[in-house]
Specification:
147 residues, alpha+beta, Ribosomal Protein L9, domain 1, Ribosomal Protein L9, domain 2, four-stranded mixed sheet, 3 helices, elongated
Length: 147
């Protein structure tokens, strides 16, 4: 069944988009909650013209996200922390600290977007992934230095 989405629904689609979903999902979830409207042959032309807006919006978002990914990939952040004489940190570096360091560089990301593969517990160069989208995940270079 074709439906026109009235709201952004995670893992389903974006607002003002026409998508195909199972009849049961549309009739039992989307339509009763007023999240979507069924697309019939009579109103398909109207909703198709409305859906063109979302295609433009997707292109703009993709362009902005790819530019942000390039910026993040070229950045190197330096974080100074207290550490033992042998170069081990008193704790580990967490996602919030990396997100705050990025914010100081002019890049706003949520701490949930910062993916640390292996916990950072010592000084040196480390690579951290920033998950912008499922496809765009640039690597950020983090240098941990002693205070």
């Amino acid at each position: 069944m074709k439906v026109y989405l009235k709201e952004d629904i995670e893992r389903v689609g974006m607002k003002k988009e026409i998508i195909d979903v199972n009849d049961g999902f549309a009739n039992n979830y989307l339509i009763p909650r007023k999240l979507a409207v069924a697309v019939t042959p009579q109103n398909e032309a109207f909703y198709t013209s409305m859906a063109k807006v979302i295609n433009h919006r997707k292109e703009v978002i993709a362009t902005q996200t790819s530019m942000l990914a390039e910026k993040i990939g070229s950045l190197e952040i330096k974080i100074k922390r207290k550490m033992h004489d042998d170069g081990k940190l008193y704790g580990s570096l967490n996602a919030l600290e990396i997100a705050e360091a990025l914010q100081q560089q002019g890049v706003n990301v949520a701490k949930s977007q910062v993916i640390i593969d292996k916990s950072i517990k010592e000084k040196g160069h480390h690579s951290v992934t920033i998950k912008l989208t499922s496809r765009l995940q640039p690597k950020l270079k983090v240098h941990v230095l002693p205070e």
